Amino acid sequence: MALLEVDNISVHYGRIQAIHDMSLTVEEGEVVSLIGANGAGKTTTMRTLAGLLNLSAGKITFDGEDISRTKGHIRVVKGISLTPEGRGIFPAMTVMENLDMGAYALKDKSQMAADFDRVFDLFPRMKERRKQLGGTLSGGEQQMLAIGRALMAHPKVLLLDEPSMGLAPQFIRQIFSIIRQVNEQGTTVLLVEQNANQALATAHRAYVLETGRITHSGTGKELLANPAIKEAYLGAA
Ligand code: ATP
């Protein structure tokens, strides 16, 4: 049984259908990437999985339970954390306070010191800047803070919406290396990206989304080698 199972879902904004009969699975322990161009429906998919948008058809199963109608804050408690596009950190709060907010849904707070340590091990720069206001961090640092905040909730699956967006190349490499580390430490990851090269290289499996429909799927390696994907997404014929 997959950890996350998306079964023929459709999502509408009013009369506009943004997602058409989408099905995908994420197995425990995997990094799965969803790649697609601007407007393909990547953010809509992530917001739907996080419980911020309603399904108009289909079913989402998480950890064996139908969560299709479960509210977003309950999904966090069940183990689904979203790092939204544009990061969504709290600019007027310090790094520590931002991380603290990530743990709001945890019932057992006794481990919080260890959780801070884990985040600071992954992101030493966050430790140096722990008293700095979130809004004064660089874009790459804000992305690290957003991932750190999501990890504070002990997710079973981490949903990352375009973590590399707007970042300089050295930060992009760093973010993908951190995604691999987080996964190796036991967190399942579903990642949406326009940066198809890195997203496919990092993923065990991946899906391609075009105008709200899944058009290809396979291992990261298979999709990297697929001529149609190369031409459309990897900047090489
Ligand atoms: P990007 O990388 O540009 O964010 P995306 O793949 O994340 O693109 P979405 O933001 O999910 O794409 O948008 C999918 C489709 O849904 C687009 O056609 C978009 O115009 C439409 N859409 C998104 N948000 C809304 C909204 N609030 N109201 C109406 N249509 C919307």
UniProtKB/TrEMBL annotation:
It comes from the Bacteria. GO terms for molecular function: ATP binding. The keyword Cell cycle does not apply. SUPFAM superfamilies: P-loop containing nucleoside triphosphate hydrolases (SSF52540). Pfam families: ABC_tran. The keyword Transport applies. Residues 4-236 form the ABC transporter domain. Keywords: Amino-acid transport, ATP-binding, Nucleotide-binding, Transport. Transmembrane segments: none annotated. Gene3D superfamilies: P-loop containing nucleotide triphosphate hydrolases. Belongs to the ABC transporter superfamily. This is ABC transporter ATP-binding protein. It comes from Luteipulveratus flavus. The lineage of its organism: Bacteria, Bacillati, Actinomycetota, Actinomycetes, Micrococcales.
